[in-house]
Design brief:
- With 271 residues, this protein is mainly alpha-helical.
- Helix content is 70%, strand content 0%.
- Helix 3 packs parallel to helix 6, helix 3 crosses helix 7 and helix 10 packs antiparallel against helix 13.
- The protein starts with a helix and ends in a 5-residue tail after the last helix.
């Protein structure tokens, strides 16, 4: 009974993906007329070929390249800054330690829309609009409060005797972080990397606000271009590219799911 219920819930959860894939192979006239049927009357693989050509001179190879470039740099920056800041909060005592940690926790409650306009004005004055800098630089200099909190919880669970032994052997504070703490944080770092990859790859608002050049836009923005209220919407091509956009996230989950479960279980964010 439990397994039957689990399979039923699993099918319900994966149904939107199956529907998107099935719709990407249907002819345009059949997508919504025969929406409940997951088996197309005829298979139209040309939706993938035509959709991959993109718009004008910009194909989806450009959009995927931009998404990978942006996502990889944001993941690297988030891992670096989150690990370093969390080590400071978890292991070092300094003036205003509690106050600064409280301020960091308060930022968790701020919706992104609240800081959107001040950030845009700042980046415009810096001349960063229509570049990747507003999307990449914050990951390197501030990280994400949620990931910092997650890493702090993980590092607090590590024995302090390891730090003390390293100090006795001559390690500096940065040496303790680099040689002792960082290698032990691998499960938490992988969890941070996976969540950052998902959120950055799917991010629509950030690229929409800061990227105006079509050659710099990401996959999430390019999918919107298929839906044009003033002309015919190419639903088959849009669903085909939507299916392809899911593949990187699926591969990341399949290869790193063991670390994801381990990281969540050891950072105290499980229910």
């Amino acid at each position: 009974m439990f397994h039957a219920f689990t399979i039923l819930v699993g099918v319900l959860m994966i149904y939107p993906i199956l529907w998107t894939f099935a719709s990407s192979l249907k002819p345009e006239s059949e997508i919504f007329r025969n929406a409940e049927n997951l088996i197309p009357s005829s298979y139209h693989w040309e939706n993938y070929v035509n959709g991959w050509r993109g718009f004008g001179t910009t194909g989806f190879n450009i959009f995927f390249r931009n998404s990978f470039f942006l996502t990889i740099l944001v993941v690297a920056g988030t891992i670096f800054s989150s690990a370093l800041v969390s080590f400071g909060f978890a292991r070092r005592k300094f003036w205003l330690h509690g106050f600064l940690f409280g301020c960091m926790m308060i930022t968790l409650m701020l919706p992104a829309q609240v800081t959107l306009i001040p950030q845009y004005i700042l980046y415009q004055q810096l001349g960063w609009v229509n570049t990747y800098l507003p999307l990449i630089v914050p990951a390197f200099i501030g990280g994400n409060p949620f990931f910092i909190f997650l890493m702090v919880q993980f590092i607090r669970g590590l024995p302090r005797e390891l730090d003390e032994s390293a100090v006795i052997d001559g390690c500096s504070a940065f040496g303790v972080f680099l040689k002792i703490i960082l290698p032990l944080c691998l499960p938490a770092l992988v969890t941070v990397a996976i969540f950052t990859f998902y959120w950055t790859w799917n991010d629509f608002l950030g690229p929409l606000v800061y990227l105006n050049n079509p050659d710099m836009q990401t996959v999430s923005l390019a999918l919107r271009l298929f839906s044009d209220p003033s002309s015919v919407t190419q639903w088959g091509q849009m669903f085909a590219m939507s299916t392809l956009s899911l593949l990187p996230m699926l591969l990341v989950f399949l290869f790193f799911q063991r670390y994801l479960v381990e990281g969540i279980a050891t950072t105290g964010i499980k229910g």
